[in-house]
Amino acid sequence: MLNHAIKQAAPLPPAVTRLASLATLDAADLTILGNAMQRAQAVRVRRDLMVEGREIVQPQLILSGWAARVRILLDGRRQFLHFLLPGDVIGMSRHSNPIAVSTVVALTEVTACPLPDGDMPPGLTEALAVSGAVDEAYLLAQIARLGRMSARERIADLMLELHERLSANGTAEERSFDMPITQEILADAMGLTAVHVNRMLQSARRSGDLLWTNGRLTIPDPFALARQVGRTPTRVTKG
Amino acid sequence: MLNHAIKQAAPLPPAVTRLASLATLDAADLTILGNAMQRAQAVRVRRDLMVEGREIVQPQLILSGWAARVRILLDGRRQFLHFLLPGDVIGMSRHSNPIAVSTVVALTEVTACPLPDGDMPPGLTEALAVSGAVDEAYLLAQIARLGRMSARERIADLMLELHERLSANGTAEERSFDMPITQEILADAMGLTAVHVNRMLQSARRSGDLLWTNGRLTIPDPFALARQVGRTPTRVTKG
DNA sequence: CGTGCTATTGAACCAGGTCAAACATAGTGG
DNA sequence: CCACTATGTTTGACCTGGTTCAATAGCACG
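The joint structure predicted for all components is written out below.
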């Protein structure tokens, strides 16, 4: 079938794949999205996409690369709150004169495009609303991880979450995905030190739970690992 | 002035005070709110106001008492994600067929009323939107606390947050407020054990930072304590 | 072929956890 | 009015998961 052949030749961009997984998008939605993506801009590593306390100019959609929401304490301690992957939205808000409640920094080279902040066709509106709900669910998961899981569990649980999220945007394999971050960044996301993260990763590798080489993370048996840490997939809508 | 006299005689309920602090409410907003509050219902301690994974029937507004969002791990470990105080809203969502992403449990006897989930006058709509943004800010603060603060700092920071929030709904004094929870609940909110919370509270009392007696918490010098832990007030709108 | 990250390893240390017992305090029922 | 129970707080002794500090090694890049 022609349609099929075309799809194979030109797969959807990850950001579109993700949004389409959250709500049904029709032609009008895809047009708006396509236009927005024309205005994509590159952001270099370590540059901020958004700064805590500053007015939010426009919501943005991550098209490629990894970013993160981050808080820095006065003495320099750093906590990553949430990773932002292709298809994730930043700076959405439903009220007037919003200011950013966290800084967003690029962890790799990132491309992102501004999103119209006014009215949008219903499919896209719904997708963005669902995206917001999913984000909240991941924030809650992060709290439970930091508050009540051991270092081993935190890392396993986060890897499963990333696998789930990258699967939703079509950029993960069945048991592996690219993870272009350092152990130090992972440590600052998990409330641990880089040294301890290193030791836990080695221990996880020895036990066959996780392998991380050349920027690629492999989870030999995602299902078994999920059972082991008591993880269930994140859902925000019925049906 | 008569108006003044009336206000003194019948101060606004905490929930209204809070919402009015988030957006300008006019007569139409107050009418809707007043009607909703007629349908207030009591919820007993330990009862759930909402269960993770179940469909959200209707958003609710907390009128009195304390509740919390909570996650329980498979082996029974418990993490409170966020405290819910009078004026807080639960179960708001912007998408269709939402399911609850966390359980909400009453920590004390609670009264709450259902909120219309359709269209509302603009002031109330804005207040609820701002409320959602504030909630998100507090979730982020909780992540930073659990991930990167010491036990002492976590407790001090949370107490300052509660003081800020209870001030916004008019139920806190300048340097104290009622805190009707146990040390074990506090521990499960801070990712600590009850034993350690107890020791930290005693140490905080000895150093004059916090006193907690007869269910009332006193912060002798909130301003100094905030400076000490590097805390700045939470803001989500400009102006 | 130095310079700057990132990853790895070892050894000593400590914040916070665990376990167990004692000590309130408030109902509650007899 | 007093035992009896239940829930919460406090204390002590000991233990461990994770940190700290420091040194080494790998690797990309100019």
